[in-house]
């Protein structure tokens, strides 16, 4: 197997066009390749600058999970910290987790951040949503999002060999809405995601002076039916609503319960 280490997007695109398979930390693929045989060509994005950024509103696909620190919103940092063991987190990458694994503990966090993905295809780089990333598994160069007002994450402890543990992630986003015939007013958008088995269920509701209480709105969504999730959602929503009222004092300070 030949492992390419492209330093530019043009090089990466060329290798992809030649059939190179993306590889992160090989924490998942190594055993499979040993059993089924190695591909002729693989491509690691570990030398590609665009795939290695960590910032308040972006995260590269080649970043190893242990590098995800306080620069990113709390929900994403907590999600990365909850993956596997320290040894796994020091090796596994964002791309391998979101595009290449089944558990995808980072996915609920990325969904509540309303992250957009930058992906590489043989015809070039383009931006897409996370639904396409999980369905088609293109080469993930990175994620981008807008800093939320506050966010929260909880992964319920579970047996390693059992069903995927329940995950609840939430984020509160500032938005300026315009009521019909009225002046613009500030409000918030609350986005929640729950991992139920290997699926992630999401819902978005509004919080503001004219909106029904967020939990009343969420009660009418599929999130309310996920076993064990409702109380955790309630705890997080209470924290986020408190954060909204304190908005302006601190942006996206960790308000954690995990
Ligand atoms: C002991 C153990 C415990 C774990 N616990 C958890 C857990 O609690 N939660 C959780 O979510 N996961 C868990 N995992 C899975 C872990 O997160 C994955 O091993 C990891 O996500 C794969 O990352 P990797 O970079 O090693 O990918 P690799 O093994 O290198 O690749 C895996 C797949 O992803 C593809 N891929 C790699 N990079 C990219 C990219 N940039 N774009 C597109 N496709 C790409 C590869 O082609 C391959 O198909 C665990 C794994 C182990 C071994």
- For the report, how would you describe the main beta sheet? 5 strands, antiparallel
Q: How many angstroms separate the termini? A: 41 Å
**Percentage of residues in DSSP E strands:** 25-35%
Query: What is the gyration radius calculated from CA atoms?
Result: 19 Å
Q: Which regions are unreliable across 5 or more consecutive residues at pLDDT < 50? A: 254-258
CATH class of the largest domain, named Alpha Beta
**Overall body shape:** globular
Mean pLDDT, nearest integer? 91
Order of strands across the main sheet = 4-5-8-6-7
Give a short overview:
By secondary structure, this protein is of the alpha+beta class. It contains nine helices and twelve strands. It is 27% helix and 28% strand.
Structural topology:
Blueprint: E1 2-4, H1 9-17, E2 21-23, H2 29-36, E3 41-44, E4 54-55, E5 58-60, H3 74-81, H4 86-89, H5 94-98, H6 106-112, E6 116-121, E7 124-128, H7 130-136, E8 139-144, E9 150-155, E10 167-178, E11 184-196, E12 199-207, H8 214-218, H9 230-245
Helix pairs in contact: 3-6
Flavin-adenine dinucleotide binds at residues 21-29, 45, 61, 83-85, 88, 91-93, 95-97, 99-101, 103-105, 137, 139-140.
């Amino acid at each position: 197997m030949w492992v390419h280490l492209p330093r530019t997007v043009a090089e990466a695109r060329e290798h992809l066009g030649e059939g190179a398979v993306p590889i992160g930390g090989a924490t998942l693929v190594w055993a499979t390749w040993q059993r089924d045989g190695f591909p002729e060509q693989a491509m690691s994005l570990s030398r590609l600058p665009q795939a290695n950024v960590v910032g308040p509103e972006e995260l590269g696909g080649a970043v190893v999970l242990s590098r995800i620190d306080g620069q990113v919103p709390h929900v994403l940092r907590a999600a990365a910290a909850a993956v596997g063991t320290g040894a796994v987190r020091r090796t596994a990458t964002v791309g391998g987790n979101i595009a290449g694994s089944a558990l995808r503990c980072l996915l609920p966090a990325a969904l509540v951040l309303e992250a957009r993905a930058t992906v590489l295809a043989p015809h070039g780089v383009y931006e897409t949503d996370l639904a396409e990333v999980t369905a088609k598994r293109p080469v993930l160069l990175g994620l981008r999002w807008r800093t939320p007002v506050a966010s929260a994450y909880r992964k319920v402890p579970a047996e390693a060999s059992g069903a995927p543990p329940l995950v609840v992630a939430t984020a509160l986003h500032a938005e300026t809405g315009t009521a019909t015939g009225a002046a613009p007013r500030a409000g918030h958008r609350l986005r929640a995601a729950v991992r139920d088995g290997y699926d992630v269920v999401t819902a978005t509701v509004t919080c503001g002076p004219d909106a029904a209480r967020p939990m009343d709105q969420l009660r009418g969504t599929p999130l309310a039916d996920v076993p064990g999730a409702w109380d955790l959602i309630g705890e997080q929503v209470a924290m986020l609503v408190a954060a909204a009222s304190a908005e302006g004092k601190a942006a996206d300070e960790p308000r954690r319960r995990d």
